[in-house]
Amino acid sequence: MNDLLKDATVTSLLAKLEAREVSSEELVRAYVDRAGALGRLNVYAHLDADRALERARAIDADRAAGRPVGPLGGVPVAIKDVLCVEGEPTTCGSRMLRDFRPPYDATAIVKLREAGAVLFGKTNMDEFAMGSSTESSFHGPTLNPWDETRIPGGSSGGSAAAVAADLAPASLGTDTGGSIRQPASFCGVVGLKPTYGRVSRYGLIAFASSLDQIGPFTHDLADAALLLKVISGRDERDATSVDRPVPDYSASLDRKPESLRIGVAREFFTEGLDPEVESAVREAIRVYEKAGARIKEVSLPHSGYGIPVYYIVAPAECSSNLARYDGTIFGHRAEDWSPRYPGEEDLHPLVRMMMASRAEGFGAEVKRRIMLGTFALSAGYADQYYNQALKVRRLIRDDFDAAFQDVDVIVGPTSPTPAFELGGRSDDLLSMYLSDIYTVTANLAGIPGLSVPCGQTKTGLPIGLQLLAPAFAEESLLRAARVFERETDWHLRRPAIGS
Ligand code: GLN
Hints:
Bound molecules: glutamine
Structural class: alpha/beta
Strand order of the largest sheet: 1-3-2-4-6-5-10-11-9-7-8
Largest sheet: 11 strands, mixed
Number of strands: 11
Distance between the termini: 5 Å
């Protein structure tokens, strides 16, 4: 590995850039070389090295001329392929959007540019962000940098693996039911899902609009705080983004909380929790205890309904969001829409064109979700499924409200197991869905969640600790996590890949 990238973080690279020890161009070149050398991991769905280098040179020139370069001036940041970047392929891991090049930037991307980041590649992901392993991508699976026979988690697997393998010092992902936190835990990095409404979703290709949020992957909390501040804030183009001041998360990060009440939810230590994951998380709780935190057992009695509710709400929203991809204005258009099955001759050719385009453009998991959602919303069933799910969603949120009366943050495992083997759960969808059992409730409740590295299995796979906080309490969430980070060195470990 180029020495420049060894143990690099956003903060350490910024210091070197500021001190003129390195130029942004040199840095970008080093990451481009590494991306070439580690192409087998399949982290990037697309990487326009020339464009990144050009941008780096422009920032170097600004810095040399004494012009302001922004808080991320010259640092490369990788972007999940679900976020629109003007002029660059934005495929969502789907054949449906293979040829899509957005004519505009997502708001989070505009903010990164304004902060001086160098947009560096589009990272691989599960098709339309539906999945927990990055295996449903049209571009093929991404490999876990800690063990290449395993998946990196999903759906933001490429963004997590990019940071873990030092293919970018930071990245953006999205989290609808755990897609930032779960891959962060499987890849041994920090992953933060902000409060619903904290970050604008404009230009994020929608999966489930009431759950989707954009957030950063980094090596440590200082970097997470920095990125969160850059991408947060009200945006008039997203009516669900909230008009609240964005705190300076970096400034408060190292202020130790005067008192810290940690909640341990009974329901997060259930059947199916891997013993090695459980012991790492219990050890993390002891670290908190030793650091002076008060530990209190809390209960989230409706957590058990998290997965069933999520798998009604998310597919329902997805079936509506994905209706636009039918080959007329958006998405892949089939070349042949002649009748394939008996009865199709009677259909209008336009309808057959849409059917053929959707049949070819979408993969199996996306089709399954669309069918699930369409069923749950259909006349006669909506009351039984969708409306019922919304009521339970409210109860899940009430559980958190009640628990946060007594504690500042709730901790537990991010995922019940470490990274599983490639192909290991493809035939057992329920076990795939269950890997989000501890993460989906935060999305349903709209609260922020964070995964930080907290241990390793005997075979060296990373384990993540999840921390949850009340809505818009990212500041205290980060500070509480920092208490753990200060006492341990899990966040410093990196996979021995090409190093
Ligand atoms: N794994 C979950 C799903 O498949 C969550 C995905 C996400 O957060 N985007 O829906």
